[in-house]
Specification:
The protein is of the alpha+beta class. About 45% of the residues lie in helices and about 20% in strands. It contains 9 helices and 12 strands. The strands form 3 sheets. Strands 2-1-5-4-3 form a 5-stranded antiparallel sheet. Helix 5 packs antiparallel against helix 6 and helix 8 runs antiparallel to helix 9. The model has no long low-confidence stretch (mean pLDDT about 80).
Length: about 400
C-alpha cells in the first residue's frame, strides 16, 4: 500500500469509527466539512454525512412522536402508571404524580407511603378487569379509584399498565350515559304507546263529527276503544315500573353479622330454586359486623340469584369475603348459566335493558340503586371460559 493510500485508509477508518461511536451514543451532531476534500475521500465523507443525517431525521421524528404521546397522556385525567414485571416504574403521567405522591416514584411498592395496602391492591388486579382500589388519605378522606391492569408488550418485553380513575368521576360518567339510555328507552316506549292511541282517537273523533254519515260501525268503535285501553294500560304499567326505581327508600341502617346475612339467604332462596339447580353459600368473614339495611341488601341478592336461575344455571355460588384491609365486604354471585353477550356488559344495570325474552330490565337497575345508596358498587363480568357470569357487590364496612 502506497503512502497516500495508507493515509486515506487510516482517515477513512477513523471517520467510520467516529460515525459508529456517534450512532451508538445516539449523538447525531457529527458532520464532516467537505472543504478541501476531493475524490474518494470526499465521497466517503459525503456518505457518512448522509447516514448521520438520516439517523438525525429519524431521531427527530421519534422524539417528536414521543413528546406528543407524552403530552397527550400527561393531560389525561386518569392516573396511568407503567411498570415492568418486577414492579419497577418505567413511566407515569402527570395525573399520577399530582393525585398520588406528588413526585415520581421508582417502584410500585413506594405507594405504601400512601397506605400499606395500596401496592398489593394494584398487584392483585386481574388482567383487563375493573376493580375497586381504596385507601384512607392522610386528611381522613377516603380515596376510591376504579382500577384496571393491562399487559402490553414492547419489543418483546412485557410491561404492566395500571389505570386508576376517581370513582366519583366514573359515577358521573356512568350516570350521564345511563340517563341518555334511559331517555332513549322512555321516548321509544312512550311514543310506541301514544302513536296508536292518538291515531285511533283522532279517527274516532272525526267519525263522531260526521254524525249519521260516519263510516265506522259500533263494533269497530268498540275494537278501537279496546285497543286504546290496552295501550293506555301498558303505558301505565311502564310508568309504574319506572316509579319502582325512583321510589326506593333511603336505607335504614342496622348492624348485621355478615355470616348471618349470607347464610340467612339460604332460607329465603332454596325453597324457590328449581329442581336441578344447586346453590352454595360461603361466608369467610369470621364474626365481622356491617351496617346495612338488611331487607334491601337481601333484595339485592335475591334479584341476583333469580337472575342466575333464569339463565338456566345449574350451579350457583354465593361467597362473602373481606378486602385485605377489612374495610369492604365483597360478595360474589357466580353461576354457570352461560354468561351474557360482551356487548351487553355496559348496559347490564341500565333501567329497562334486558337480554331475556319477556324481561322488564328492572331487577339489576334496582340492585345498583340500592347498593349505590349504601355507598357501594356492583359489577358484572363473564367468566373467562365463557361458562357463566359473576356479579360482585362491594359494601363499605360501616357499623352503627
Amino acid at each position: 500500500m502506497g503512502f497516500w493510500q495508507n493515509i486515506f485508509y487510516n482517515k477513512s477508518i477513523k471517520r467510520l469509527r467516529l460515525m459508529l461511536e456517534s450512532v451508538r451514543m445516539r449523538d447525531f451532531s457529527l458532520q464532516y466539512s467537505l472543504d478541501k476534500l476531493t475524490g474518494e475521500e470526499r465521497r466517503m465523507a459525503e456518505e457518512i454525512n448522509a447516514v448521520i443525517n438520516e439517523f438525525r431525521e429519524t431521531e427527530r421524528k421519534h422524539q417528536g412522536e414521543t413528546h406528543l404521546y407524552d403530552a397527550l397522556l400527561s393531560n389525561v385525567d386518569s392516573i396511568l402508571i407503567a411498570t415492568d414485571e418486577t414492579g419497577k416504574t418505567k413511566w407515569m403521567n402527570k395525573a399520577a404524580i399530582e393525585h398520588l405522591c406528588g413526585f415520581q416514584f421508582d417502584r410500585l411498592d413506594n405507594l405504601s407511603a400512601l397506605h400499606p395496602s395500596l401496592p398489593e391492591q394494584l398487584k392483585g388486579l386481574r388482567k383487563n378487569s375493573m376493580s375497586l382500589v381504596s385507601f384512607p388519605a392522610k386528611e381522613g378522606e377516603e380515596k376510591r379509584y376504579a382500577a384496571t391492569m393491562k399487559k402490553i408488550f414492547v419489543s418483546g418485553i412485557s410491561y404492566r399498565l395500571y389505570t386508576m380513575q376517581d370513582v366519583a368521576s366514573v359515577f358521573r360518567q356512568s350516570e350521564s350515559l345511563a340517563q341518555q339510555r334511559l331517555v332513549r328507552v322512555l321516548t321509544h316506549e312512550i311514543v310506541n304507546s301514544l302513536t296508536p292511541i292518538v291515531s285511533l282517537s283522532e279517527t274516532m273523533a272525526d267519525n263522531m263529527a260526521m254524525g249519521s254519515e260516519r263510516d265506522i260501525s259500533d263494533s269497530e268503535m268498540e275494537v278501537a276503544l279496546s285497543a286504546i285501553s290496552r295501550r293506555a294500560k301498558g303505558l301505565m304499567e311502564f310508568v309504574q315500573r319506572y316509579r319502582m326505581l325512583s321510589g326506593i327508600a333511603p336505607p335504614v341502617i342496622s348492624t348485621v353479622r355478615i355470616e348471618e346475612l349470607i347464610i340467612g339467604l339460604q332460607e329465603l332462596v332454596v325453597p324457590q330454586m328449581r329442581e336441578g339447580c344447586k346453590v352454595s353459600f360461603n361466608a369467610r368473614c369470621g364474626d365481622a359486623m356491617i351496617g346495612i339495611d338488611r331487607a334491601q341488601i337481601e333484595q339485592v341478592f335475591l334479584n341476583l340469584l333469580k337472575n342466575a336461575v333464569e339463565t338456566g344455571a345449574t350451579l350457583i355460588d354465593v361467597t362473602g369475603t373481606l378486602s385485605d384491609d377489612e374495610r369492604w365486604l365483597i360478595v360474589s354471585v357466580t353461576d354457570n348459566g352461560g354468561g351474557f353477550p360482551k356487548e351487553a356488559a355496559d348496559n347490564m344495570f341500565t333501567p329497562f335493558f334486558t337480554t331475556k325474552s319477556g324481561g322488564q330490565g328492572i331487577g339489576l337497575a334496582v340492585c345498583r340503586q340500592i347498593v349505590s345508596n349504601h355507598g357501594g358498587l356492583v359489577g358484572a363480568e363473564c367468566l373467562e371460559d365463557g361458562s357463566g357470569a359473576r356479579f360482585t357487590v362491594r359494601l363499605p364496612m360501616k357499623e352503627i
